[in-house]
Amino acid sequence: MKSILYCLCLVVTLSACNQSSDRPAEIPAVKTVKAISADAGMALVFASAIQPRYQSQLAFRVGGKLLTREAHLGSHVKQGQVLAQLDPADLKLSAAASQAQVASVKADYIYAKAELERYKQLRAQSYVSAAAYEVRKNSYDAALARLNAAKAQAAVSTHQAGYSNLIADYDGIITTVNADPGQVIAAGQPIMTLARTESLDAVINVAESQIQQVRAARYVDISLWSDPDKVYHGHIREIAGAADIASRTYEVKIQIDKPDNDLKLGMTATVVMHGAAGIDRSTTLIPLTALLQSQQQAAVYVLDADNRLAVRKVKVMQYRERDALISTGLQPGERLVALGVHKLHAGEHVSPIPAGSLFASDAKQTPTNVQ
What we know:
Blueprint: H1 2-22, E1 29-34, E2 36-37, H2 38-41, E3 44-52, E4 55-59, E5 64-69, E6 76-77, E7 82-86, H3 89-124, H4 130-162, E8 165-167, E9 172-177, E10 184-185, E11 190-195, E12 200-207, H5 211-216, E13 219-224, E14 227-239, E15 249-256, E16 268-274, E17 284-287, E18 292-293, E19 298-303, E20 309-313, E21 315-319, E22 323-328, E23 335-337, E24 351-354, E25 369-370
Parallel strand pairs: 1-24, 3-25
Antiparallel strand pairs: 1-23, 2-17, 3-12, 3-16, 4-11, 5-7, 5-10, 6-9, 7-8, 9-11, 12-15, 13-14, 13-16, 14-15, 17-22, 18-19, 19-20, 21-22
Helix pairs in contact: 3-4
């Protein structure tokens, strides 16, 4: 009986071994990526905000009580439009007083002029002395000076009466409001901010280690976070001459070439600067995770047409934060393993899975050097 049980167990064991040996070898799945030209892949990416190129804080030239405010936050205004108005009563009274002063001084001037003409005739006939004539001449000159001063003061008062209206200097949008009706306003106190919308900038902050690359950028793309598929083109308009004291970064303003109505002030955008200085076109860019050591030299696993792995020795020109510049050993477009290289071996057959967003190869993907 024991011999029969032993035979049955032996048969079951041999059957299981035959079944396991009949299974096909498991093909590992690996994430792959294409080597790209460093000239195309070393794009600098920055978060930015859309800001107007021109904006100004509007204020009254005179003080007074704010009577009305016609423009509100977000209002679109036209050039010459009245935005706010001060109580003009005191300004009008001041202008009227100045005009009355002009009339008074003008009367004195007319009398002094008539006296001068009379004494001029008497002097010609030697009826008055030269000293008496000089007295009348000085009185006339003083009256003329007082008249000119009164006219100038009246002109200032008249202009100030007109300053009770705050006028828009150009078409734009109101971005801030700092006063409400009933508030007493001092001369020069900012009431609101007016921004022009026909010229827009994407403003970024650049570290000092990247400022030279930014200067060398050949072209710039801008896309909104709300609509990343729509790309605007721009160019660097201004680079700050000094770094910010707190952040130690340089403010760079990129003018958007053809803004449209989809661009709103304050929107968040992505700025991509293409073209890095000093990089040869033959240099390739790969992720750091694709590198391994083979005989004390950097290497990568390259896939052939049959998806088999081959060790390729490469020369690393520069190690960067998340990628490496390869000067020799790779050509743009070659497929290589992106992750898990230390668990594979040469000649192994693999099932490739494109890494996609793990590495940048075109403008629609996110470049590797993300700030």
